[in-house]
Amino acid sequence: MINENTTHVIKDPVHGTMQFGSLENSWVKPFIDSPNFQRLRHIKQLGMGDYIFPGAVHTRFNHSLGCSYIASQIANKIGLAEEERQLVVIACLLHDIGHGPFSHAFEDIFHHKLIKHEDWTPFFLADYRNSEFFSKYNKANPRHHLTENKFLRIEEMIMHKSRAKAVLADIVSSQLDADRLDYLLRDSHFCGVTYGQFDLRWMLNCMAIVSSKKGERLGITHKGIGVIEHYLMARRLMMRNIYHSQKKLALEYYMIRFLRSLSEGLEDYSLFIDVKKTRLGRFLIKANSLNQKSSSTKNPSSHKKLFLDENFSEYKELCDYDVYSAIRNLSQMNDEHPAVRLAKSIQYRQMPKIVRLDFNDTMEIEAQVKDFKKTNQKKYQDWQITFLQTPHRSYSGEEDPILVVNEHNAVKPINEISLMINAISDKYEHTAFLCIDKEIANDSSVIKFTEKLSQSVGVEQF
Q1: Are 331 and 416 in contact (CB under 8 A)?
Q2: What is the pLDDT of residue 5?
Q3: In angstroms, rounded to a whole number, what is the distance separating the alpha carbons of residues 83 and 256?
Q4: Using CA atoms, how far apart are residues 453 and 361, in angstroms rounded to an integer?
Q5: Which residues in 429-448 are b (16+ Cβ under 10 Å) and which e?
Q6: Residue 300 region, left (φ>0) first, then alpha (ψ -120 to 50), else beta?
Q7: Best CA proximity match to 60, nearest among 186, 160, 168, 234
Q8: Which of 31, 129, 154, 388 is the most buried (most CB within 10 A)?
Q9: Sign of CA pseudo-dihedral 354, 357, 362, 368
Q10: Span 383-390, mean pLDDT?
Q11: Mind listing the pLDDT tens digit for each residue in 398-410?
């Protein structure tokens, strides 16, 4: 018999005391205790973010717990039935289960991001979809059994293919989802900044089910307009100052170039024999083979499914520590191979020089950088100077707007009500800069080139 008066308490630096009733705890604990979920303890939420913000050592594990907790708060506020609450709480808990080392950064080891963490998610979820797990789970949940059909609904919500009620899918993935509500507050806290802060408690209080052309959706009452303005501005500031911090992006570029260079040399570079024998080494060899195949075909995705099928067992064991071990190993070598030089830069935090550029004519910038590299290819390695750009937007009013219901039950998109949100709606902002290796930053030819480029395209405007 489940005693619903008892709670499971998790002390969290962001949400304080996260209380899960015994019923909710029985829904999530079998997943939390599983090896696939425990793996997330060893994958940092912000990739290389802690090299810039030393406190940002929080993990996908922390975030997933927080996301599940917020989902339970939303579900309670809008009055979902128990079985619906169960679905969204589990879906939010497992939404990041497919991430690899250093979160999003690891996806760039594949050309054109051919494989993203979402591609691995169904494989992780499949590990739960078996009679043994269901039987164990259902013994702890006699009231709400987990079935093949229910688990499929959970997977569809995570994979944005939900055929369930739209309001349930919105809690898992939307512009007002539990994921964003947690990561903004969590990332802000651990980075030691206030950009991402907003009044979560008041937002939860103002959440409601609203009617739309697509059916019932998760929305906000008119009393919550102010907190949504605060929330979206917090998201914009976090993007500009944290997620798209030039130094963070530059170090993640180093990390990806390190892994790609290592993968290309593992097969025939004798110096890398120890790394070749590791699970990371085995995975990178296969990833390099996929990159070569995808570069020589008009349909790169044709090799994708086979790669996922054959390499999931290796991927599911990878975490940040595997990469750090390889970096430490190579950083102690005396060699000019790009992987070795990049390993030293990462291991000893040899930050590249950043030259911020105005985002006007990226094609012209890329052309000039390409010409400079070609002219100096015998003098500099390809990774030592590069142009990086990352477009981003804080809010989309066209695709799937946040809906507001007033006291007369009239529903409108928030960008039609708020001047501030209308001003940023569907507007792309850009981070554009040159990333220059510290060893060559003071070379006369590099200085002349960067000065000329800065004069021709300008520096970034805010």
Answers
A1: no
A2: 54
A3: 42
A4: 11
A5: bebbbbbbbeebbeeeebee
A6: alpha
A7: 186
A8: 154
A9: negative
A10: 94
A11: 888 999 999 999 9
Q: Determine the Cα–Cα distance for residues 454 and 354; give it in Å rounded to an integer.
A: 12
Q: Is the dihedral of CA 425, 96, 245, 381 positive or negative?
A: negative
Q: How far is CA 411 from its chain centroid?
A: 32
- Note if the pTM is more than 0.90: yes
Q: Does the structure show a pLDDT above 90 at 59? A: yes
CB 181 within 8 A of CB 70: yes
Average pLDDT, the chain: 93
Chain centroid, CA 258 distance in Å: 20
Look up tokens 């000065």; give the residue: 451
On the question of pLDDT at 318 being above 80, the answer is: yes
d(CA 184, CA 187) in angstroms, rounded, equals 5
pLDDT at 456: 75
Residue holding tokens 């975490």? 319
